[in-house]
Amino acid sequence: MKLDAQVPGGQLSEKWKKHKSAMKLVNPANRRKHTVLIVGTGLAGASAAAALGEAGYKVKAFFYHESPRRAHSIAAQGGINAAKNYQNDGDSVDRLFYDTIKGGDFRAREANVYRLAEVSANIIDHCVALGVPFAREYGGQLSNRSFGGTQVSRTFYARGQTGQQLLLGAYSAMMRQVDEGNVEIYSRREMLEIVVVNGVCRGVIIRNLLTGEIESHSGDAVILATGGYSNVYYLSTNAKYSNVTATWRAYKKGAGFANPCFTQIHPTCIPVAGEYQSKLTLMSESLRNDGRVWVPKKAGDNRAASQIPDADRDYYLERRYPGFGNLVPRDVASRAAKSVCDEGRGVGASKQAVFLDFSDAIKRLGQPAIESKYGNLFEIYQQITDENPYEVPMRMYPAPHYTMGGLWVDYHLMSNIPGLFVAGEANFSDHGANRLGASALMQGLADGYFVLPYTIANYIGGTKIEAVSIDSSDFKAARAEAQGRIDKLLGMRGKKTVTEIHRRLGRVMWDAVGMSRSRPGLEKAIKDIRSLREEFWTDVSVPGDKNNLNPELEMAGRVADFLEFGEVMAMDALAREESCGGHFREEHQTPENEAKRDDEKFAHVAVWEYQGEQKAPVRHQEPLKFEVVHLAARNYK
Amino acid sequence: MKLNLKIWRQKDAKTPGKFVDYALDHVSPEMSFLEMLDVLNEELVKKGEEPVAFDHDCREGICGSCGVVINGKAHGGQVNTTTCQLYMRHYNDGDTVLIEPFRARAFPVVKDLCVDRQSLDRVVKAGGYISAHVGSAVDGNTIPIGKELAEKAFDAGTCIQCGACVAACKNASAMLFTSAQTQRLNLLPQGKVELSRRVTRMIAAMDEEKFGACTNEAECSAVCPKGISFKNITEMNHNYLKSSLE
Fold first, then answer.
1. What is the CATH number of domain B3-104?
2. How does pLDDT run across A240-262, given as a tens digit for each residue?
3. Taking CA A619 as the corner, what is the angle to CA A618 and CA A621, rounded to the nearest 5 degrees?
4. Which of A80, A226, B51, B143 is the most buried (most CB within 10 A)?
5. Catalytic residue set of A
């Protein structure tokens, strides 16, 4: 596998600027002759569709929801980072760049991250122009708040619904292009295969979820913007339908899968309540601006929170990390919560929770101020738990939330398969081993609005793209493959439900490839996943037929892919003999239980290449060269 | 607790549907309404029957996918609550629960409890946007927007496009939805430039999609899980009238 990151030369701060002027262009009159296929209409997909449609390309956008605006970006709560320095607190592009690299524990590519920091300010301006109602001060200026892992206020927000408002902006911009005839949208469609012709990605195979029809679409470039794979854990903060299928299918056609073990377990989620729980609900990181995290000092202290005096409380984040306090990065906060619960100091009925307490903030600022900042989050909390967080502290526990790993891409966001681009959470590019809060929205929109329009033009303008027919043998073969898998699933008449197997896979992944990982645990997990996969393919039942809406069949296909993907994730975690960011190997920690990196052996991106059924995939490396940043131990003390 | 469920089953858009009875044991109060349906579905799959199809995704009240009519009320009748955020603690042992899809001419049933609400996307397509080119925007702070105004536009922008307003309206009107989409933009200085075109075209699109007319009963805002204000309709009507006189 050839992994050329295509990073342009020159000084880090000048690379993107210079490269933009050097990249190939496509004449405006010629753009409509080129078709770009986009899978997924979250922030990355919808913004790419809007920008490419506006530029004049012929765009087709596919999504499995009934409306493109239902993509899971809509659920993002806290905010979006940008190096505007409106607060005059010393922010700059360089600082946002450094915070992101350091937050990712020095496992991301410098040039990509610098570009992200550079375009961040343009994103805010464009979103304001689109009518996104960011929070404002009384004087009409944009307001900011702080997020974890930074010491400046650079997060722009729209209450606790920033993702919704940004997606509305991108969705409406895309719908304008639909209105103008540049973008065609395909609702209730799921991508089942990419089509590679002579080593170049030329199309996708799509299933119409309403009719079951297998459709073929050819184009000059394909963009996957299909999100992350947190649902491999079954219980996560992702929407129920979020899945790995599109990226996994691309991997099986030759695209490299980078750092699959880099997953983010978000520290503040509502704890699991019952056996039938179907998903976990996140409470925005922004809550840690005003909420204080604590547990009782003594294990087994069963008094109600209000009965525990300050002297008997352990504000463990403030104690361990005085420099950042409650606003340490997510990986650090999650591990700390796990360790106090492991010590028996957890709270609530399950003892798998810590308190997030607003009483001091309410005393200091008054309830109305807290309401205006976090009102909708408090409401969600009360709706789910039946407890009033203005009166009793919230109970929180970490939950799978985001995946930094994804398909490998170069500086142009193109995978190792020419013509196949990957954007947003689906690629691996910017967050290293841990993403900072409010950076996912930034990356999705940077990719879609400000990077792909240039790099897609460069690709189309600089490549001789032959005509291709959907009746060609490559398309036929891909169709047959997709159809074969559906028939096989529908032929299953076992005793177990797809959900049952998914739940058990989730348990294996959470226990062995979750917040804490070890060699024996991972080796056992790999065996367990294999046997679960076998059980799935012998004993699962998939009712219904293929010619109309069949959510159970859709889910079966996605779980089948998770059962393959989970194994590679565990293999990746096993091969990375160090701790970094969200990847914590018990064998590699400091005496204070902090993550211990091994820069000599592991300052690289691990990229997995598919070798065929029943064959072990091969692990490749893209070395990470740090030209500007000095690799240091991450210290938030 | 034990529940008697009466659920609308319909194979596809062309086949007529009917209510089917299901008895469900062991429903716990901490379950969400959709988790209760998950449990029923797992039982059905184990019996080799087809599970009940219902739309859902985020399960935290923001994606707007879910939405059924429960005992005659869109989203079940709890204030500011989507179906996915409805918890079984609001039900009692032995209750009969009638579950049916949103019904409107513009929302054809595609299967069981799933309907097709793409008509709403087509209304948005007609003008629910600000025409701003990528890359041409001025600095965000050069357009000062007062806090109250930003909040008001935001309130309209919290609509999740679930369609409950249409389902609750005896005329199956989409006025609340459409007015939320127009007002979230019309109120802002950036959105004023296209105001007339937006309002005129979106209302025309609404009619084209065969949504009914508004007769001011406000059933829509009563069931809206996001509390979208009925005032948006008044303001949109005002804008429409003004635009038609221009």
1. 3.10.20.30
2. 999 999 999 999 999 999 999 99
3. 140
4. A226
5. 330
